[in-house]
Design brief:
Elements: H1 4-16, H2 30-33, E1 41-42, H3 50-55, E2 80-83, H4 96-110, E3 118-120, E4 126-128, H5 129-133, E5 136-139, E6 142-145, H6 153-166, H7 169-175, E7 177-178, E8 189-192, E9 200-209, E10 216-222, E11 231-233, E12 245-246, E13 253-256, E14 259-262, E15 266-268
Antiparallel strand pairs: 1-9, 2-11, 3-4, 5-6, 7-15, 8-9, 8-15, 9-10, 10-11, 10-12, 13-14
C-alpha cells in the first residue's frame, strides 16, 4: 500500500487533473460521495428542510451509467459525476423541469407535507395531490371525479406522471420566485422556460463556502431530453474542482455541460 498510494495520487493529478479526494467512490449519498474543495466547509442545511433532503439523497453506485426512459443508454455519458437513486419512469416524461418537480414532490411526500404538493399547468390550475387522492382528474372540462380514491405510493407515482404531462419549464418558472445569486440556497433552481420552445432546469444539490474568502461553490443535478436518470453534473470548466461550480465565477452566464443559463435565472420554490 505504501507504494500504491503515491502512484495513484500521481495518476489522479497528472492524468485526470483532479484530486482523488474529490469523490469517495463508496459514498452512498451526495454528502458522503462528494468532498468539498480544499479550504471549504460544507453548508449544512437544517434538518427536515428541502436542502437537507437533497444533501442526503441516495446515489447509485459509482460508475453507473445514465439510461433513458426506454432503458437505452444516453448517448453522452461524459456529463455526469453521479446518478440519483430514483426511478426515471418508463415514459418520456421525467425530463428537466419534471426532475425538479419530482424531487420537490418526493420531499414533501416523505415529510408528510402532502397538503403542499401541487404544480400549476398551462391554464394556471393547481394540480394538487390531495385532490388526486380523492379521484379527481384533469379533463377537457376541467377537474372531474373519474377515479376511485387512492392515496397509495403507486397512485402518487401516477400523479407525478400526470403533472409531468401538463407542466414544464415554462409553467414551473412562472410559479417560482426569482432569487439573486448572493441568496442562493440548496434546492434553488436555475431555470429557463419559454411558451413556444424548449427550456431547461438544473437544481442546486449541495453547497460549500470558504470561510476566509467567502467564495461559495455548489453541485448541480439535472434530467434532460429524452427523459433519463437524474444525475449530478460535472463541471468541465474547472479541472481543479470538476464537480463543484463557483458562485463567484458566474458573471453573466452559468455554463453547464448541456445548457447555458443567464445569471438572473435562479429561482426558488
Amino acid at each position: 500500500m505504501l507504494i500504491r498510494i503515491p502512484i495513484l495520487l500521481f495518476f489522479c493529478f497528472s492524468v485526470l487533473g483532479v484530486s482523488c479526494q474529490n469523490v469517495k467512490k463508496t459514498g452512498e449519498t451526495i454528502k458522503e460521495r462528494f468532498d468539498v474543495p480544499a479550504g471549504f466547509i460544507r453548508l449544512e442545511a437544517p434538518a427536515g428542510t428541502f436542502g437537507a433532503y437533497l444533501q442526503n439523497f441516495a446515489l447509485k453506485p459509482d460508475g453507473s451509467k445514465v439510461y433513458l426512459f426506454n432503458n437505452t443508454l444516453k448517448a453522452n455519458q461524459d456529463v455526469h459525476a453521479a446518478i440519483l437513486d430514483i426511478d426515471r419512469g418508463d415514459k418520456d416524461l421525467q425530463q428537466c423541469a419534471d426532475a425538479v418537480m419530482r424531487l420537490r414532490a418526493e420531499y414533501l411526500y416523505n415529510s408528510k407535507k402532502t397538503d403542499k404538493i401541487g404544480f400549476k399547468n398551462f391554464a394556471g390550475t393547481n394540480m394538487d395531490w390531495l385532490r388526486y387522492t380523492k379521484g379527481y382528474r384533469i379533463t377537457q372540462k376541467g377537474y372531474q371525479k373519474t377515479a376511485k380514491p387512492d392515496s397509495s405510493k403507486t397512485a402518487f407515482r401516477k400523479y407525478l406522471d400526470m403533472v409531468f404531462s401538463y407542466a414544464n419549464t415554462y409553467t414551473l418558472s412562472n410559479e417560482m420566485q426569482s432569487i439573486s445569486l448572493s441568496r442562493m440556497q440548496i434546492g434553488d433552481v436555475f431555470i429557463m422556460g419559454y411558451p413556444n420552445k424548449f427550456g431547461h432546469a438544473v437544481i442546486v444539490m449541495d453547497m460549500a463556502e470558504n470561510p476566509k474568502t467567502k467564495e461559495k461553490v455548489f453541485l448541480l443535478a439535472q434530467s434532460y431530453m429524452p427523459a433519463q436518470d437524474i444525475h449530478v453534473l460535472q463541471n468541465a470548466n474547472d479541472t481543479k474542482n470538476p464537480y463543484w461550480y463557483s458562485l463567484q465565477a458566474i458573471e453573466e452566464t452559468l455554463h453547464t455541460p448541456e445548457w447555458d443559463f443567464p445569471a438572473n435565472s435562479l429561482k426558488r420554490f
